[in-house]
Amino acid sequence: MKIAITGKGGVGKSTISSALALLLTEKGNKVLAIDADPDANLAAALGMPREMQDKIIPISKQTELIEERTGAKVNQYGQMFKLNPEVSDISDTYATLYRGISLLVLGAIRRGGGGCACPENVLLRALVRDLILHKDETLLLDMEAGIEHLGRATAGGVDIMLVVVEPGQMSIECARKIFELSGEIGLLRVYVVGNKIKEQDDREFIKKALPDAKILGFISFREEFRKADRPGVSILDALTEGSLEEFNQILTEISKITSKN
Fold it and tell me: Given a cut of 90, is residue 209 above it in pLDDT?
């Protein structure tokens, strides 16, 4: 099962990603969680202690690894380097194991004039492609606000993409853009998860704003989520029965969809 999760910054991608990763692990799945968001909040959302988090170096900052695999120096231009570097061993070597979950932090993909074609980008894209297409683990990819880490070569390997949406116009606009970009690369199994829902009006707002979207479920806004945002506390540590049921319902829907593929 390969799940990608995206949405506007601040909508709760890492909260939902961590909850699903922990629940999947509890159900006996071997989970590889990929933090592909430059803000890199997934370790904290999993409840990883600060001292463990501080030891994690994102792959994009692993200069020796990048230069070894691509054959090019970081931050130098006009070089020739490998476009298909060897990456199959990276997740096993550089992932951090916590609560049965292997966590791999990618770091930022550079944009603009700084380079779509720099060694760091080439390595990260090759790594994501390998993880999606060739790894047997249950893969959960916590992405930035878009589909920057995906492309036509990897879209077919993603079983489902969840677009996390909160009841606000900026979140809706971001979701619409994600749907458009997903269609351009052939990623068709895209679903919405409504988050931070306080009342029925919030549900109706999302449904009306995204009439063509397939909505997988809603996560209510609860005080317990604020309590989970503390060092060493995972989202599951703070969940009450009601919230846990909402996450399990979403996971059940994901399992139904992916079992048909």
Answer: yes
pLDDT greater than 70 at residue 71: yes
Which residues have CB under 8 Å from 71's CB, separation 6+? 80, 81, 82
In one-letter notation, the amino acid at residue 83 is L
Per-residue confidence (pLDDT) for residue 114, from 0 to 100: 40
- Give dist(CA 202, CA 32) in Å, integer: 33
What SS3 string covers 83-146? CCCCCCCHHHHHCEEECCEEEEECCCCCCHHHCCCCHHHHHHHHHHHHHHHHCCCEEEEEECCC
Tell me: pLDDT of 115 over 50.
no
With contact defined as beta carbons under 8 Å apart, do 255 and 247 qualify?
Answer: no
What sections of the chain are H helices per DSSP? 13-26, 42-45, 50-53, 63-70, 90-94, 119-134, 152-155, 169-184, 200-209, 223-228, 235-238, 241-259
The pLDDT-based confidence of 140 (bands split at 50, 70, 90) is: very high
Residue 142: CA count within 13 A, CB half-sphere = 32
- Has residue 84 got a pLDDT over 90? no
Q: For residues 114 and 60, what is the distance between their CA atoms, to the nearest angstrom? A: 14
